[in-house]
Design brief:
Blueprint (H helix, E strand, L loop, with lengths): L5 E13 L5 E7 L4 E7 L8 E6 L5 H9 L4 E4 L3 H7 L16 E3 L10 H11 L7 E9 L16 E3 L23 E6 L4 E9 L33 E7 L11 E6 L5 E2 L4 E3 L5 E3 L4 E2 L4 E5 L13 E6 L5 E7 L1 H4 L6 E2 L1
Parallel strand pairs: 3-8
Antiparallel strand pairs: 1-2, 1-5, 1-7, 2-3, 4-6, 4-10, 7-8, 7-9, 9-10, 11-12, 11-20, 12-17, 13-16, 14-15, 14-18, 18-19
């Protein structure tokens, strides 16, 4: 069963602190009308480190859409299926971290400079104070608030969001019930004076199929982890390396996707799929990509699969429905007519 009250909290940073048990970093956020607490996991209950993707110049197609849809700070329910598919984070399906090997283990606290989650979070959040218009977009599960004082910020009442981490791939057990799609937690921070975003995306090591290499395959309905790929990770056998998303003139039948076979063997693409941001598919027929070479697919005019000019995602699935490669491109990248985007 997915999260029950998936929400988007938008506001400005007030202050932060590490909880006494050092498992959570607590953030006090002002949404313009009242204050909320954001509880960010920085250590697993078993003591293991979290996997993290922290990008101080984050570029993703969802960012521009968030600014357009949510010009005002506040707390918004995005729990309905349509809202999740439109604005919910999904590390896997929205290709939010690219290669999962980009995620690294970080401790909650550690001696040294800029080498733990407490420092990373503090740095990104404190920087917002230098930009009066900076906004924090926090995705997670809203807990039932009370009129009692907050546990960590007693000057405000008890209300906020948690589960600020990936919420899919949990193995059978206590947290499997939290699995779902388009409901991952995370922090996206917008600095308008710079026109720049910072992304803080976290996940537990137990949520992945494999580590070193780091791979993730989950069911498109339940978000439960799909087994069977552990002995031989398949990610990256074929890569999406470029796309022509905005051809000159009429676009139908002229959009292109460029694929690279990274192996030394020919690979049949029969039954494989390309999936766009709206989950529309192009299904490959009797096509083969030869060893260590590229294939250029011209998307047929009759296909529902499209490469939108307002930004989008492109995901490659094998015939078993497992993700092999995934990329995303922004509205700014797509604005140049007739130009192939390197992905």
């Amino acid at each position: 069963m997915p999260l029950k009250n998936f929400s988007l909290l938008i506001g400005t940073f007030d202050r932060g602190l590490m909880a006494p048990d050092a498992n959570h970093y607590e953030i006090k956020l002002n949404n313009g009308a009242e204050f909320f607490r954001i509880a960010v996991n920085v250590r697993s209950q078993d003591g293991s480190m979290l996997m993290s993707h922290i990008d101080y110049n984050y570029q993703h197609e969802i960012c521009a859409r968030l600014l357009e849809a949510y010009p005002q700070n506040g707390i918004y329910s995005i729990n309905e299926d349509s809202k999740r598919k439109q604005f919910g984070l999904d590390f896997l399906r929205r290709n939010m971290v690219g290669d999962f090997n980009n995620m690294i283990e970080l401790p909650n606290q550690q001696n040294g400079l800029d080498n733990d989650l407490e420092e990373k979070l503090t740095q990104a959040l404190e920087q917002t104070k230098a930009d009066p218009g900076a906004r924090i977009f926090a995705f997670g599960e809203r807990w039932p608030g009370t009129s009692k004082p907050d546990k960590y910020f007693p000057e405000i009442k008890d209300q906020g969001i948690h589960d600020i981490h990936m919420n899919q791939g949990n193995p059978p057990g206590r947290f499997e019930k939290d699995n779902g799609v388009f409901q991952d937690g995370g922090l996206l921070i917008y600095y308008p004076s710079l026109g720049r975003w910072t992304a803080i995306l976290l996940a537990f090591q137990t949520q992945f199929n494999t580590l070193r290499p780091t791979t993730l395959h989950t069911d498109d309905v339940t978000g439960n982890r799909i087994g069977g790929t552990e002995p031989k990770p398949i990610d990256g056998e074929v890569l999406i390396i470029a796309a022509l998303v905005n051809p000159r003139g009429s676009e139908k039948g002229k959009e292109k996707v460029y694929l690279l076979n990274t192996s030394e063997q020919d690979i049949s693409l029969k039954g494989w799929k390309l999936v766009d941001r709206n989950r529309q598919e192009y299904v490959f027929g009797e096509q083969t990509i030869t060893a260590a070479s590229t294939l250029i697919l011209t998307v047929p005019a009759s296909s529902n699969f499209t490469l939108g000019n307002s930004g989008g995602t492109i995901t490659l699935l094998n015939k078993a429905g497992l993700k092999i490669s995934g990329v995303q491109y922004t509205k700014e990248q797509a604005s140049a007519e007739g130009k192939v985007i390197k992905l």
